[in-house]
Amino acid sequence: MPKLLKTCLIALTLLLCGAAGAAEPSDESIRALFVSANSKALLEGLQEKINPMIQQQMRQVSADRKLNPRQKLVVDKMGERMTQYLQSEISWEHMEPIYMRLYKKTFTQEEVDGITRFYSTPEGQALIKKMPALMTNLMGEMQALMSSMQSRFEQITRETAAELAKPEPSNL
Questions:
Q1: How far are the Cα atoms of 100, 129, 136 from residue 133, in angstroms, in the given order?
Q2: What contacts 125, CB < 8 A, 6 or more positions away?
Q3: Do residues 75 and 58 touch, judged by C-beta distance below 8 A?
Q4: Following CA atoms 95, 101, 103, 109 in sequence, which dihedral angle do they give, to the nearest 10 degrees?
Q5: What is the full per-residue pLDDT of the chain (172 aa) written as tens digits?
Q6: Which pTM was predicted?
Q7: What whole-number distance in Å separates Cα of residue 18 and Cα of residue 36?
Q8: Helix/strand/coil (H/E/C) assignment for every residue in the chain
């Protein structure tokens, strides 16, 4: 789960960030960019997707093991606690200062102004409107890829363990 969440956050950050520049943008211009990009709503949309992802992860944990009713409740409670924690950590109030700092490090004033102008165009608004669907599709693809990679890593680990367990060849 943490890998999937990290992938989502990286993708959201990539949506909101760009190339480095020289002249530091003002807080006001960055906030105007956040408004034109609907950044807070995008982040809130990500939060709405977290709960089902955690619930799916908890169902997987339950399916992988034969849990009695008490154990199932414990796993369900863990999912609720994880959801609450993740949602507090990626709240707009928590993330905005991070985004502000990163935007100041990454963009020039001219770039922030240009990006804000772009997001004010019909094309920019189309990008903003369609980005959640793109991110949902990307998360699905990444989840499948990570699952496939995890299976292969486990296979490589088993093969390596078997190789390590072989006796040393004698030099006679």
A1: 25, 8, 5
A2: 119
A3: yes
A4: 140
A5: 566 556 555 655 655 554 444 689 999 999 999 999 999 988 888 888 777 878 888 888 777 788 888 988 888 888 888 888 888 888 899 999 999 999 999 999 999 999 999 999 999 999 999 988 888 889 889 888 888 888 889 999 999 999 999 988 876 6
A6: 0.61
A7: 16
A8: CHHHHHHHHHHHHHHHCCCCCCCCCCHHHHHHHHHHCCHHHHHHHHHHHHHHHHHHHHHHHHHHCCCCHHHHHHHHHHHHHHHHHHHHHCCHHHHHHHHHHHHHHHCCHHHHHHHHHHHCCHHHHHHHHHHHHHHHHHHHHHHHHHHHHHHHHHHHHHHHHHHHHCCCCCCC
The token pair at 17 is: 């960030």
Provide the token pair at 80: 């609720």
